[in-house]
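Human: For the file, kindly provide a plain-text protein record giving the amino acid sequence and the backbone structure tokens, at your earliest convenience.
Assistant:
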Amino acid sequence: MATGARVLAWIEGHRAELRLAARMTAAGLAAFALAESLHLAQGYWAVLTAIVVIQGSVGGSLKASLDRFLGTLSGALWGAAVALLAPRESSLALGVAVLVAVAPLAVLAAINASFRVAPISAVIVLLGTSSLQAGPLASAMARVLEIGLGCVVGFAISLLVLPAPAASVVAEVTSRTLGVLADLLAAMVAGLTKEAEGASYTAFHARVRAAIAALETGIKEAQHERRIYFIAGHDPAPLVRTARRLHADLLITGRAAADPLQEPVRSRLEPRLTEISETACAFLRETGAALAARDAPPSCDAMNRAFDGYAAAMAELRRERLTQVLSDDEAERIFTLGFGLEQLRRDLSDLAQRTGEFARPAPRLLSGRAETD
């Protein structure tokens, strides 16, 4: 029973990876079947291409398919032209032909990564055994057909077999990012209220930056999907911008959290900061779960009360003139902390709105029956 529970937990935690593996397997099998039915001489190129172009989202697979086909087409045509026009009687002449074939395509690939496979395709057409046997033009046409078949199969499988729209992938990655932000916020509040040696948040920030980089890629893939109208839905870019701003808010707050606050401020603010940590961290984690499930965001009420309590405590400290006895550095820390928390509150509210945009439409009653918009 325990082993079965662990297996199920592992499967639940790796659903995205397992869906990707299923799509890659299906693409390879479908491309092999088509290549065999069409009697392609080198059908393995179609199989390899179908597997390679499968990405984590529909938009990623679309971009990979287009890039590979365009790169192959340009490289094959240029390689065939060089093979037809350039002499290849000696090793020196063949070397010059390779230089002429590769150099301009290498420049093109360096400028535009979409043409990265173009130099490889040109070399295969120029030096491949099929080029020597059937001729460069026939070899180029065969390679374009094989790669094109693999691209079409790969994208079709991405669209039809356990499809993963880029917006949904962005929501899942954002969900994990919010969990890291919650851990970072909790660590920072602990650093403000408890004695600790050299509080460091470098590892947290590195994890958030890596996640945001993945989100940027997801945005581009979602834009590809939206342009061709294959996938409908909300633009995930505002959600990613909000996640980036939340990270910036915690960077600001972290400047004040390198060391604990000094007395008498610490004892007065510690309960309020702890309340902010508990409610805001819970909100971040619950919002992450809502994004992954495409549910409505959690309520902001408890979190807003915590921020209001902190503002009231700060106002009380000023009325009692306790902030006037602080050093300039400590007063600057208090100001930085207050500014960071104010920005954090604003962006958490914005996160709730962005999460609501991703929620599935709620059922409504119509003519006595529940219907979904």
Remarks:
- Confidence is low (pLDDT under 50) at residues 362-373.
